[in-house]
Amino acid sequence: MALDLNFYLFAIPAVLFAGMSKGGFGSAAAFAATPFLALILAPGQAVGLMLPLLMVMDVTAVKMFWRKWDLRVAGVLILGAVPGILIGTLVYGVADPRVFKFLIGVVALGFVGWQLAKTARLLHPPKRELGEGAGLFWGAVTGITSFISHAGGPPAAVYMLSKRMDKTTYQATSVLVFWAVNLMKVIPYAFVGIFTRESLTADLTLIPVAVIGVLAGVWMHHKVPEKLFFGLAYVFLVITGSKLIWEALAG
């Protein structure tokens, strides 16, 4: 990972975008930074670079929603995420880097498809509350997708939406889940060598960008229509996701 001009031309917009999503738009599109960075970095470098920065953003969010979450729902998803993270660790340890690049691209396109289907009301919350067994399953899927590209939002949402929580409780529960999931990924990431001296050095230089992004997101929350923000995010994810899949298959 060369910390040169080309790196920062990609990293600064990616981190700013993630911060803006976390600060003003419910963090749903924050993971878009990972596919973008994977265009110039190895997949492991991309996810490794973003994790500490996402954790910095998480701290702010946890303070904002302190004790407003549903601890039981969060606990089920967090417990389920443990085997999911372990599966992600095993896959990373044996898979060719192109497999991870392909998976990041698939997750990116899948995220867009999920969001568009939800917007078009093709997807609906479960009519009945899902039990804890289903919560553990969706927690495991959350752990896998979060390990691959920090994109655990959709599977976690399947379980949380069934609980018919109010908006604040839902957001606070989501914040708590991903704060915990991101913490749990630190040791596995270190174990498989995802963190490097270069990535951690880059993180130190990008922390101010992450903070500025969160503050900008808070300001944009009242100035920029949510549909415009997510519309741009979806176009961006389709382009980067498609390119990653093409590179993985052609490589």
Biggest β-sheet description: none
Rg, Cα atoms, Å: 17 Å
Task: Give the overall shape.
Answer: globular
What is the ordering of alpha helices and beta strands?
Answer: HHHHHHHHHH
Structural class: mainly alpha
Point out poorly predicted stretches.
none
Percentage beta strand: under 5%
Number of helices: 10
How much helical structure, as a percent, in the residues? over 70%
CA-CA gap between termini: 20 Å
What is the tally of beta strands? 0
Averaged pLDDT: 88
Report on the architecture of this protein.
- The structure is a single chain.
- This protein has 251 residues and is mainly α.
- 78% of the residues lie in helices and 0% in strands.
- The protein has helices at residues 5-24, 33-37, 43-64, 71-94, 97-119, 132-149, 153-161, 167-191, 197-220, 226-250.
- Helix 1 packs parallel to helix 3 (43-64).
- The protein is globular.
- The two termini are 20 Å apart.
- The mean pLDDT is 88.
Map the helices and strands.
Blueprint: H1 5-24, H2 33-37, H3 43-64, H4 71-94, H5 97-119, H6 132-149, H7 153-161, H8 167-191, H9 197-220, H10 226-250
Helix pairs in contact: 1-3, 1-9, 3-8, 3-9, 4-6, 4-8, 5-10, 6-7
Entry summary:
The chain has helices at 5-24, 33-37, 43-64, 71-94, 97-119, 132-149, 153-161, 167-191, 197-220, 226-250. By secondary structure, it is mostly helical.
